[in-house]
Design a protein that fits this description.
Blueprint (H helix, E strand, L loop, with lengths): L4 H15 L1 H40 L3 E5 L11 H4 L4 H10 L3 E16 L2 E10 L2 H5 L4 E4 L4 H6 L3 E4 L1 H8 L8 E4 L2 E9 L14 E5 H9 L6 E6 L5 H15 L1 H4 L5 E5 H44 L1 H9 L4 H35 L10 H27 L3 H6 L2
Parallel strand pairs: 3-8, 5-7
Antiparallel strand pairs: 1-9, 1-10, 2-3, 2-6, 2-9, 4-7, 5-8, 6-7
Subcellular location: Cell membrane
Keywords: ATP-binding, Cell membrane, Membrane, Nucleotide-binding, Transmembrane, Transmembrane helix
Organism: Thioalkalivibrio nitratireducens (strain DSM 14787 / UNIQEM 213 / ALEN2)
Length: 408
């Protein structure tokens, strides 16, 4: 050994690496692959969680959604009397009778082809009231929003999402033009600002928004709406408003309810929280599976160190003969094992950083390599070296000086 203390241990460990480059290199590579897998999965998982929570927040984490049917009575989802029981009048009653309600928007939505000349696009036609744009924080970039006068008159007008306007009109102005949806002519009165929120299938960029009265009478031919969106005045008022809505709905159709709820009031904030927890759980599960490769790498470290002990019995005997005690021998070999895993950890971090940069170009979200996770994985990597290096180190420290010196 070249001296005493940590510098001497590191010096001897580096000498060992240089002496057995191939064997040490493969051991370091095994640890690096394990660290790369764990860090990359955690970064992608954390990025996915942030992305999903952001997307749900865009959908309206402060909103309540009222839909017909209730899981406590699964048959309610197949009862047409229940499915067609929500109306625009319900929206008006909720807004006018329940304290703490800021906005209510009924929604009647259907898919179809929108045409402008020879240009076509598949889009969702959202029949709703003027409250919808404010409730979803949608801003009109060009033209005007829907108005109460449009709703009362059942006017054939619409506001287009930014992407839909671009696909139909390109660089030409859309406001004032007429598009066709299921054979009906609709005048474009406004275009929304782009939101880039289409990942969860509820994006507004490719939708068009028209008065619900026009959609019901002229296109869908129905009187009901599919769901109601309710915005409380504050997050603190949400629970109270939800309870008041449930009470209203219980008394709305007593003949259908048979004493039980036939509607569902969904808190979008709880969905955002649940989505975040599920994504985090899946991320840690995958990372735990990937961590198995780190353990396998640790077994490789133990094999290398056992071989090293067998090859250096004579050296161990000489060191014991000149005064080194068992503890110093043990620290020397544990230090060498920890150095192997630490180098593997740093190399794995470099691999992970490159992978995350590459995946960020292909995924809709950005992988997040958090400093706390990096430190945790490096410490875990060093701990793997210490754990799997202990047995070879203990074996080396247990050799008696005479036995070691006689070893050939």
């Amino acid at each position: 050994m070249s001296g005493s203390g940590i510098p001497a241990v590191l010096t001897d460990a580096m000498a060992l690496l240089r002496e057995h480059k191939t064997r040490s290199g493969l051991t370091i590579l095994g640890i690096a692959v394990g660290v790369w897998a764990v860090v990359t999965l955690l970064a992608i998982g954390f990025g996915a969680r942030a992305y999903i929570e952001g997307q749900v927040a865009v959908l309206g984490s402060d909103l309540l959604i009222v839909t017909p049917g209730n899981v406590q009575d699964p048959t309610s989802f197949f009862n047409p009397l229940i499915a067609e029981s929500l109306t625009v009048r319900d929206a008006e009653r909720l807004r006018n009778s329940i304290p703490g309600v800021l906005r209510v928007a009924p929604v009647s939505q259907l898919q179809g082809e929108v045409r402008y000349g020879d240009r076509r696009a598949v889009a969702s036609l959202v029949g709703t009231t003027p409250d919808y744009l404010g409730l979803r924080d949608l801003r009109v970039d060009i033209g005007r929003p829907l108005t109460a006068a449009d709703e009362r008159a059942g006017a054939p007008v619409a506001v287009l999402g930014a992407e839909l306007a671009e696909r139909l009109f390109g660089n030409r102005p859309a406001v004032g033009q007429t598009v066709r949806f299921q054979g009906q002519s609709v005048e474009v009165v406004g275009v929304l600002s782009r939101r880039d929120d289409a990942a969860l299938g509820q994006g507004q960029d490719s939708d068009l928004f028209a008065p619900v009265s026009f959609v019901q009478r002229s296109i869908a031919g129905v009187r009901h709406v599919q769901y109601l969106m309710v915005q409380p005045v504050s997050r603190e008022a949400k629970d109270e408003v939800a309870l008041a809505i449930e009470l209203y709905l219980l008394t709305k159709n007593t003949a259908l309810s048979h004493g039980g709820p036939i509607y569902t009031v969904t808190d979008m904030g709880q969905i955002a929280s649940l989505a975040g927890r599920l994504t985090a759980a899946m991320t840690w599960t995958l990372a735990s599976i990937a961590a198995v490769s780190l353990v396998v790498g640790g077994i490789g470290v133990m094999n290398v160190m056992l071989a090293s002990v067998s090859e250096r019995v004579g050296e161990i005997g000489i060191r014991r003969a000149v005064g080194a005690n068992a503890g110093q021998i043990r620290i020397q070999f544990i230090g060498e094992a920890a150095l192997l895993t630490l180098l593997g950890g740093f190399l794995g971090m470099l691999f992970a950083a490159g992978s995350i940069v590459l995946l960020n170009q292909m995924l809709p979200w950005q992988g997040q390599m958090e400093s706390g996770v990096v430190l945790l994985v490096l410490l875990f990597s060093a701990a793997i070296g210490g754990f799997f290096g202990y047995y070879p180190a203990h074996k080396a420290a247990s050799l008696s000086p005479m036995e070691a010196l006689r070893y050939d």
